[in-house]
Amino acid sequence: MSKIRIFEHISLDGVIEHDGDYIYGAWTTPYRSPAGAAMLFEAYGGDFDLLLGRKTYDIFSSFWPNAGDFPMANAINAATKYIATHRPDSLEWGPVKDLSNDVIDGIRKLKATEGRDVIVVGSSTLTSVLLNEGLADEVVLITYPVLLGRGKRLLADTIDARELEFVDSKSTATGLLINTYKHLGPLKK
Predict the structure, then answer these.
(1) Which of 182, 178, 81 is nearest to 126 (CA)?
(2) DSSP code of 153?
(3) What are the distances in angstroms from CA 189 to CA 81, 155, 161, 166, 181?
(4) pLDDT tens readout for residues 52-84
(5) How, if at all, do strands 177-186 and 162-171 pair?
(6) Of 185, 181, 187, which Cα lies nearest the Cα of 5?
(7) Strand duo 117-121 + 4-11: pairing
(8) Cα–Cα distance, 64 to 92 (Å, whole number)
(9) Buried (b) or exposed (e) across 124-158, using 16+ Cβ within 10 A?
């Protein structure tokens, strides 16, 4: 069975990586380092596939094919990209597969296959759905030492309370934390 692992870049107050029109722009940039990139690539596992929403796919397809020759770019470009989209005929950056009209059923079938881990990056709409449906196995939060106050939050307001189990934490000299949690399911009352 494939493991679905959610990776989200997040501020201390729960704001995730945002669209380009956000007031603070690239707020993650000052905290990036070669050591952090190496830790993140290690957390990805090196050999993985991707599960992306259409917006994230479009953003990634405009960057990663031209990012150069280095391990993270090579792994992302080689990964099979499973895309939640209503426009599958316009998917060009591959290898790529759409999840069909019933995205949840498509993800269940993907998860049931024997294969590589499936990484979800960005795609915040998918994150809430995956957790609510019990389809996510792990949540990896890449936490930056900033408080942004406003912006797009990690989870939708409609998500049910979830329980996680701490697995691992790594940090960089810039204050970046990479925290890994196992998704246990609904929070016990």
Answers:
(1) 81
(2) B
(3) 37, 20, 10, 19, 20
(4) 988 888 889 999 999 999 888 999 999 999 998
(5) antiparallel
(6) 181
(7) parallel
(8) 13
(9) bebbbbbbbeebbbbbbbbbbebebeebeebeeee
In DSSP terms, 49 is beta-bridged to 118
Amino acid at 138: E
Rounded CA gap, 178 and 58, in Å? Answer: 25
Distances (CA, A) of 14 to 3, 21, 155: 24, 18, 9
What would the pLDDT profile of 83-104 be if each residue is shown by its tens digit? 988 777 788 898 999 887 888 9
Domains and CATH numbers, the chain: 4-160+170-178 (3.40.430.10)
Whole-structure pTM value: 0.90
State residue 42 phi and psi, 5-degree precision.
-65, -40
Helices (H) then strands (E): counts for the chain: 5, 8
Structure confidence by residue, pLDDT tens digits, 98-144: 887 888 999 999 899 888 999 999 888 899 999 999 999 999 999 99
